[in-house]
Automatic annotation (TrEMBL):
GO terms for cellular component: cytoplasm. One of its GO terms (molecular function) is glyoxalase III activity. It comes from Emticicia aquatilis. The gene is nonF. This is Glutamine amidotransferase. Belongs to the peptidase C56 family. HSP31-like subfamily. Pfam families: DJ-1_PfpI. GO terms for biological process: methylglyoxal catabolic process to D-lactate via S-lactoyl-glutathione.
Length: 223
């Protein structure tokens, strides 16, 4: 049996005091989808509300994997995302949370999502997230009361990248928040590919890191 991956996307479509339009950043879902698909995995989608997620960065549609996602089964299936509470997440060997600014809206304080992530990790499955997606790992507490990210090597969108991207739109700094909960944060050069695996937690810094996150998740699942 090939592994099964559940991609959990945000439902948000605006952020900040000026209602900046946002969603899931296209390559951060399309590139991992392409890697999981090439590996022959079953890929399903869920959101917290069960509503269709929004996509951001459609201007990048000329990238081959992005275009294949938009015109193939990827986007068609993402539009039919299940409501997370209706999904038996125990069936999945891995969960993956793509970024875009959207997760900064509805994945900071999300009790059901936090429980899903904690349960997934504690039963021995793989947890992956990229760019702003690791905000989903914030406030995730394990059964011993510790934060999931405490003592783990983690990457996410960095303070320096946010300063040059969406600082006025976000309510807090993701790198600082992860570090405050004990993450050992790894920041590479701005916008460079940077993905890191620590046990069964795989994270990436930015859109360029999405492919690497999926590759590392696959390596763990195939080991």
């Amino acid at each position: 049996m090939k592994p099964k991956v559940l991609i959990i996307a945000s439902n948000a479509n605006s952020i900040g005091p000026n209602n900046r339009r946002t969603g899931t950043f296209l390559p951060e879902v399309a590139h991992p989808y392409a890697e999981f698909n090439r590996a022959g995995y079953q890929i399903d989608f869920a959101t917290q509300s069960g509503d269709t997620p929004y996509l951001d960065a459609l201007f990048l549609a000329n990238d081959p994997d992005n275009l294949a996602f938009l015109t193939g089964e990827g986007w068609a299936n993402m539009q039919k995302a299940a409501k997370l509470s209706n999904v038996d997440v125990n069936q999945y060997d891995a969960i993956f949370i793509p970024g875009g600014l959207a997760p900064m809206v509805d994945m900071v304080e999300a009790p059901e999502l936090k429980k899903v992530i904690a349960d997934t990790y504690e039963r021995g499955a793989v947890v992956g997230a990229v760019c702003h997606g690791p905000v989903s790992l914030l406030n995730v507490k394990l059964s011993d009361g510790s934060y999931l990210v405490n003592g783990k090597n983690i990457a996410s969108f960095t303070t320096a990248e946010e300063d040059n991207y969406a600082r006025p739109d976000v309510s807090f700094d993701l790198q600082s928040a992860l570090t405050a909960q004990g993450a050992i944060f790894h920041a590479a050069e701005l916008w460079s590919a940077n993905s890191i695996a620590d046990g069964r937690v795989v994270t990436g810094q930015n859109p360029a890191s999405a492919k690497g996150v999926a590759e590392k998740m696959i390596a763990i699942l195939e080991a």
